[in-house]
Design goal:
The chain has 785 residues and is mostly helical. It contains 30 helices and six strands.
Amino acid sequence: MSRRTAVRPVQPAAPGQQPALGRNAMVAFAVLVAAALFATLFPWFPGGIQFAEGSSVDRAILSPRERSYESEVLTEQVREDAAEAVDDVFVLDTDIREQQLRELDRLIAEIEAVRGTDTLSTSAKESQVRAVPGSNLSERGAATAIATSGPTWSALTDEARTSLGRALTGTIRADDVDAARQRAAGLLSALLTSDQHLTVTELVDPLIVPTLVVDQERTNLLRDEARANTLPVRVTYQRGEVVVPPGQPLSAANIEALQEFGIRESGISPSAIAATAVLSALVGAGMAAYLAVARPPALRGTRRLLLFALFLIVPAAVAKFSLPLLLPDLDRHFLAAALPLAAGPMAAAVLLEVGSAIALTVLLAAVVVFVTAYLPAVDSVGEAAQLETVRLGLVVIAASIAGITFTARADRLQRYLVAGMVAAGATALVLLATWFMDADRRLADFLWIGAASLVGGVLAALVAVGSFVLLSRPFGIITRVELMELAQLTHPLLRRLQDEAPGTFQHSILVGNLAERAADRIGADPLLVRVGAYYHDAGKLVAPEFFVENTPAGAPNPHDGLDPLQSTRVIQQHVTGGVEIARRERLPEAVVQFIPQHHGTRLVAYFYRRAAQSDPDIEEDLFRYPGPKPQSRETALVMLADSCEATVRASADRSAGRIREIIDATIKERIEEGQFDECDLSLRDLAIVADSYTSTLTAVFHPRVEYPEPSQRELAARRTVPLPERAGELREAARRSLAPRPSELPQRPVADEDDGDDSLIPPSRERPAPSAPRSGQRELSEDDT
């Protein structure tokens, strides 16, 4: 074959096409994926430190690596200290003097009102004077205020106004109020008695207040300038340096240092839980949207969907639990790029299909970016962490797509190694591109970039190989590597066919050649078709002598002693028995399905017609193959190839025109019987298949020119070699020793080989010479019998 199918995955046929997912099923799948991803990424970090001020740790916490960072906590403390060091800005309030004089007048007026009340006793007046709002008079002062005569009282109040006005004329700070009061008392008139002096002092002292007030706007401006002029505080820890001593209560600066080092906080972060839930829902919805829009046939069925989800959840878990150990990459070893995260999409390309693998790549990259950038378990602080986030997302995309490109066509294990190397190259290119964006780049990084890329690519390829080895059978998927192994003629089951049913073996080889070429032309899977054709008649090993291609000439016909129904049971047994043999040999289900489907539900016509001659009312279903009808284009191709090869071989006229008539009649008959109703073989496909089968069978049954007898001169020129006794026995022994063993026969027999017939043994052992059919008549083949 000159080319092979590019991306079509090997799909096992099953009874009935599985319908695409309905809306409810897609919603359920999205919910399950979101729940599984949420459980995987759940931001709960047991065993960490309780990040609370005042709590303490039992043992010293040391710096795991050298780290320097700007401390927001300490910087804020220093800035506040600088602001507090700025003195308040005071201004003179000129309105205070007038306000306080008016307050003094009010107080004097209320005292005079009490003095003028004739209905009160002296003691009552004294009590009311002391109760006047703002009054600070003592009992002695109140008694003096009541007992003093009118002119003297007027002199006292004038002295009080003069003293207060004089005291508030200058500038008084808050801490100078007591001194101002003392100065005011010292400046009172010397003519005052001690009682009068006390009364005036008690009236004036409460009203002497600071005349300088803080200008809050100017003060705040100066303090803001002080904060802005304070440089950030940079904290540096050496590797192994104590970050938090044992037993010391945690401060805000301690907590900041722990977070800078990526030391996990125990417990649950509500914001991280909310973010994880949103991301999980988006990823689940993205998977459901892909299924709804693309409707990939490889993802029909519960097991396939489970595998699709598994290829996302497992790499997500690897990222979640590995990245906290590898980031931040302060040593610049790029170890996060060595994680085999691309193995999931690469394995999906092998076990599912390329479209699903690419969709998986996009979703996985989103998950990895989220884990790197948001989950508190990963140190993601600063510009370096932002670059690391972008770098890992691009690495996942580049390595996955590069690996997918090569694993999708891989039919040998060496191809997976190539895929791993290509993925490593893509990873290295991404690391190199982001290296130019790194302010801390060094030439020594190239060695680590190469090493990390190589490890990541090779590991991804190895994990991909291991995954399809472990998962292919449980999930009912066959890989191309496994098909290549089954196509080897040294397989034990094919060895048995060569030894026990050689005619069937040769027929199967030719059917494989015939169907493989047609499969390649219509875009089916040619490798699966070839392998299915090799094993489609494995059931004839149950009773090979009941099939004419496996019996030598002159041997008795085993069907002569059986009635038609018994013979039909024997013939049908090569289907049911073939399935049992194939499963006993642990053949993949995709190959096993060729055995029951290559006959579909057709009639064993030869024995049915014999039975109908004696019993016209005999039930037709007793003579039908159990089916099912072909469920895929691949099994339909083998059905056609099986019938066409047998019918053409039985025909006396094997010209190209007659071969085309036989093939067209066979295809028409299968369509009328409804054998292709359950597979997606189109009329265009059938036209291409007819052309392919015609060219192949014409080449197989090509004519040969008959050689003339040797001339007398040739005979005379030959040497006569005397033979010893038993010459005949020696010649026979030599012939047997030189004859090729079945395993040495070529996989594609040359066109003039006399391949075995696939028709049933006729009632008479002497097979009549084929004669040309009449117009409209077609030769019988195994499918007719």
